Amino acid sequence: MTGWRGQPTEPLSAETVRDEAWKHIGPIRLDRVVPERDALALHHWLTHPSSAFWQMTELGLDEVLAYSRRVADATDEHAWIGRIGGRPRFMVETYDPSRVLLAGLYRARTGDVGMHLLTAPAEGPRLHGLTDAVMAATMRFCFRTLRAQRVVVEPDVRNTAIAAKNAAAGFRVVREIDLPGKRAALSVCTREDFAASRLGARTIHEDPR
Any transmembrane segments, and where (predicted)? Predict the structure, then answer.
């Protein structure tokens, strides 16, 4: 069963992946968000000051639960919980950019997948390479599991940290656009862009567990 542009709508998980250079981080897995199970963790992440660019820091738990349910019921956007070593550590949203958020604002192509990435607030000492590993796993998930031909993002132009991470994954800024609450850097990354990037060029070893 498929949704927009061949995107799967049945429950699915990404393969667990482990990069030898990041093996100290542990295997990474992505699964569908289950609102009743994941809303508490998502509320903690979204309302943390480090997540200010998501524009959700003032939401209550009930509002995050309602938001998660809306996305779970949608056909043109999905949310995924990323687990590292079995623990929830990040969330990915994927969407059809020709219908959600970017409709009419850019030249869409067949196989485009929009993406948002949120990592959990750091607890204790930062784990070196964590965000690199998360970004690389997310991009592989989009290209392999969701069969994207291009990944499209629209970060706030003030978010210099994600701009650097996007560049490391091979994203190219197309132009700046105005979106609700932000001036955004519309950026795209093809399969070839990612493969040639600092993060995409790393050798991946899939863990069948």
Answer: none
Angstrom distance (rounded) from CA 44 to CA 65: 12
Query: What domains, with CATH codes, occur in the chain?
Result: 4-206 (3.40.630.30)
**How many residues are present in the chain?**
209
Model pLDDT for residues 29-56, shown as the tens digit of each residue: 899 999 999 999 999 999 999 999 999 9
Using one digit for the tens of pLDDT, what is the confidence trace for 97-153? 999 999 999 999 999 999 999 999 987 667 778 899 999 999 999 999 999 999 999
Is 159 buried (19+), middle (13-18) or exposed (0-12) by CB count in 10 A?
Answer: middle
Is residue 155 a contact partner of residue 184, using CB atoms and an 8 Å limit?
Answer: yes
SS3 for the chain is CECHHHCECCCCECCCEEEHHHCCCCCEEEEECCHHHHHHHHHHHHCCHHHHHHCCCCCCHHHHHHHHHHHHHCCCEEEEEEEECCEEEEEEEEECCCCCCCCCCCCCCCCEEEEEEEECCCCCCCCCCHHHHHHHHHHHHHHHHCCCCEEEECCECCCHHHHHHHHHCCCEEEEEEEECCEEEEEEEEEHHHHHHCCCCCCCEEECCC
